[in-house]
Each structure stands twice: as C-alpha cells, then as structure tokens.
Amino acid sequence: MEIINNITNWIEIFQKLIIENNNVFEYSTKIVFEHYIILILAFLPFLFRLFFWLYVIQLKEYRWDRFKEYINTPQWNSALINMWSIIEFILLIISFYTIFNKIFEIIILPVFFYFLIIQNIFILRKIIKNRVFVPKITSRLILTFLLLSIPILFWIYIICYFDLSNYLYTYLMSLFIFLPFIIFIILIITLPLVNYKKNKIIKKAIEISNTYNNPIKIWITWSYWKSSVKEYLASILEQQWNTLKTPDNINTELWVSQLIINKLNDKYKYFVAEMWAYRIWEIDLLWKIVNHKHWFLTAIWNQHLWLFWTLENIKKWKCEIINSIKKNNWTLYVNWNNPEIRKIDFWDDLDIIKYWNYEWSDTKFEIIWIIEWKTKFTYEYNWAKTIFFVPLIWEHNIINISWVIAFWYNIWLKTSDLNSCLKYIKAPKNTLSTLIPKENLVIIDDTYNLSEAGLLSGIEVLNSFEWKKILVMDDILELWWKAKMIHFELWKKIAENKIIDDLFYIWVNYKSSFIKWLVKWWFEKKSIINKINIKLYTDKCIILFEWRNAWKYMNNLIKNV
C-alpha cells in the first residue's frame, strides 16, 4: 500500500512540475526504492521467458537446422508476437523519452509497476497449473546461462551505482523483447568451444567402441518406433545377459558418445543404441561411434522432412551406410511393411532380414486372440512356426516384437528361453502404454512421440474399445511444407469416420483452422473440448494422450482421478 501511495505522490509531483515548469533532472535520475521494486517485479517474467527459450533451443538440440523448422510454425509467431510483446514494444518506445526528457520518468514508473504486477500474476497462474517450460540442466545450459547473466547483472549494477534510473526502463524492455536473439548470439559465440569439446568426446567414444569388441553392438534408427523396438529388444536381452542400452530418447551422437565413455566395457554382452542423424555426413560418423554388427531400420515417413526436404533424400542419405554393411558383413533388419523402405534398391548379396507381416517378408505372424491385456499369436520364421504369449495388446506391438524374435533366432537361441523372456516384456514408457486408474476408465499414454503413423496406431487402439473415445493430441512436428496438409488429412479422417467422440487439441498451431475444418467435415462442435472433466463421463471411457504437451495435462488429470 505504501508503494502505491508513493507512486500516486509521484504522479502529483509530475502534474505540479508541469504547471510550475520546474527542473526535475536531479530528482528523476536518482535510484530510489521504487526502482528496486521494479527490478524485483521484472525478475520472474524475465526468468519465465528465459526458461522458455532455453527449453525450445534445447529441445531442438541447439541445432539451427532443427530450429529453422520451428521458425516456420504458428507457435514461433505466437511466441514472438503476442499481447505481452506488443505492450512491451510500446513501453520500449515510451521509455526512450525518459532518456532525453527525464520528466517522463515520473509517469512511466506506475505504468511499469502495474504492467509487471499483472504479468507476475499471469505467470504465477501458469506455475500453479504446471504450464511452465523448464530446460534440463546441462553443462552447455549452465555456460549459456552464465554468459547471459553476467552482462545483464553488470549493466543493472552500472545503472544503480551511477543513479541512471532514466535508462532502467529502456534496458528492461530491451531485455524482454530481444532475449531470444541475445541467446542466439551467445550460442554462436560459444559454438567453437562447444564443437571442440564435442569432437573430443566423439573421438574418445570411437576409440573406446573399437577397443571393446566383446559387446555385440546393435544400431536402431530411422523415422519412428526406434525407442519401442530398442526397449523391446533390450528388455528381452537383459533377462539373459548383461545388456547396455541408450536410455529414454537419448539418440544423438554426443549423448551416445558420453554413454559409451562412461559405461561401455567388455562386461556387457550386448549394446543396443538408438541413434538418429540429421545430415548425410553424420550417418558415417554414427556407425563409427557404435561400431555395430546389426542394424535395424524401423520406418521411413514424413518425420524430419524439414531436415531432408524430401522422402527421396531421406532414403538416399540414410542408405549411405549400406556400403559399410556390405564391407563389414553386418546383418540388416528392415521393416518390410513400410512402403518407403520397400522402394529402396537393396543389394542382393546383403544379409537382410525383412520383418513384419508383408507378403514378401521373412517373418510372418497371425494374432489368435487378445484377452485381458494379453495377446496370443503364431510366428513364422525360417519355415518354423511357433506360438507366443505376450502381456501386450494391439497389432503394432506384435509388429515391433516380430523382428526382436527374428534376431533371437539368428543368434541361435532356444524358443523356450524366449517364451520365458516374453512373459515379462512391457510396453515402453509413454508409448501406447496403458494406465487403468478405474474400472470404467482407461488411459493410453502415447506422449513419448507423435508421428502420422503413430497417431493412426493410437486411433486403432481406441477402435478396439466400444467405450466413449477421447483423443487429446498435440502437433506433429518437423513436417515442413506438408505440415498443414498432413494435419488436415488426419482431422478429415477422424471427422468423417466418426472414430472419436471428443477431441481436445492441446497446442496453438493450426488451432483456428482445426476447429473450422472439423466442423465443416460434420464433426460436432460440442465434441471439440477445451477441458476433460471425468465426472461428466458416467459411462466407460478411454482417453488417448498423444505427444509431449499432452503429458503434463495427462499427469494433472490422473492426480484428480
């Protein structure tokens, strides 16, 4: 209350000075208690947007080729140009007047005060609702944070020490508006140091990988289902042998290199690595890092189209490693049901295993029944047919297990041992895994990744239930010029086939178009929801959550169930 009274007094002084035409330079340039309040109030909004931009840049792995795709999304536009940024730009222009005519400081102080108060309230609401983006703490993040903080704090000290209050407002608004560009400048400045350290780590990893030849090294790659296949294989192998795998979604050359340096040794029988390359030269680098004997290609589709421009380039660049496969007598496992993989001209003398259930594939399966979250299926490989049971449901899981079984047979292991291992296999975390908090409620967690094929698999899961079906979906990213078209095709299929009862689109890209086109395709507008209230669903219902931004919403929902 005292602060507000002080600000009111300042306005009265301003009016009096205008009338009497007095000189207020000396008074207005002095740093007073109210200026420190402004600095304190600016801290949380600044930290909030700093965390957001560091999170986005970290999500894009500090790579300009990945960040370019983000620039071409509506999300980028809304992050840069929104209500707050427009107000801040206006305040920046007004603040320039305090530099040249210090009398304006008396009136701009309460404006800044109330603006920052409102912004703090807005951010606190987001924090309470767990809608804050927080980056992971890494050495590069700490370096960026320090290089950003030191000059910012230095100039605040200069302003306070020399009583330059007339520069304070311009300085704060400039920081708010130009923060992402300042971060990019720091990243560019530190790039030579980062590349030097990165190359040093990769070189050391290659040396260690070549030193330890006992672990049988397996590389899993391509557009989607990499993590699912990796987890299935590793979960089976580690029941019999000491097995090392890349954790979670760590699949870049740097992260895998650090894993090799810290953990790989001859005590491991198998090393299963999920890896992904963004440029053609990286393919060659990755196989040198892993030094693998088996290579698995899960699927090719529109994912990462922005990086490679066309599907033809994806196939061409990814297949550069085939020369190494032939040279080193490696075994190549490919998803033969994927139409883009079938278009690749593989050499006849390659040791290639075509898995899935396609006519010309080497493996075939047939589901016998699905009961109580378990599946019984027949599996045929090398003219031998076997029956297996797994504690998983839905065809896509059996598809991804089919090549794991082929690998098991190729290393000359017993079927009885495989059967015992399959009894304990689990769906990978956040990849169509099932949560059942209540008898009348099933939650399907598919928040690890989202692809066009992955979403269709999730919808197929929903179709296996006769319950009320609710889909909570995020954007499919890195589709470049095909992004809007692919989203429209998916929404049209959802609307026309009447396969979803309620749909919740959780992110900002294409949201207005999303509602407009769904209604045009006869999807009921009342079924396009903004919030899920379980209490309103009296009948049995199943909820499918698709991709990362749906994860927080799903966790909050589960807490309230």
Please characterize this protein's 3D structure.
This protein has 22 helices and 14 strands. The radius of gyration is 29 Å and the shape is globular. By secondary structure, it is α/β, with parallel strands linked by helices. The chain has a six-stranded parallel sheet. Strands 10-11-14-12-13 form a five-stranded mixed sheet, with helices on both faces. The protein starts with a helix and ends with a helix. Residues 17-29 have low confidence and may be disordered. The chain folds into three domains: 2-191, no CATH class; 213-422, 3-Layer(aba) Sandwich (UDP-N-acetylmuramoyl-L-alanine:D-glutamate ligase), CATH 3.40.1190; 433-559, Mur ligase, C-terminal domain (Protein-Tyrosine Phosphatase, Chain A, Alpha-Beta Complex), CATH 3.90.190.20.
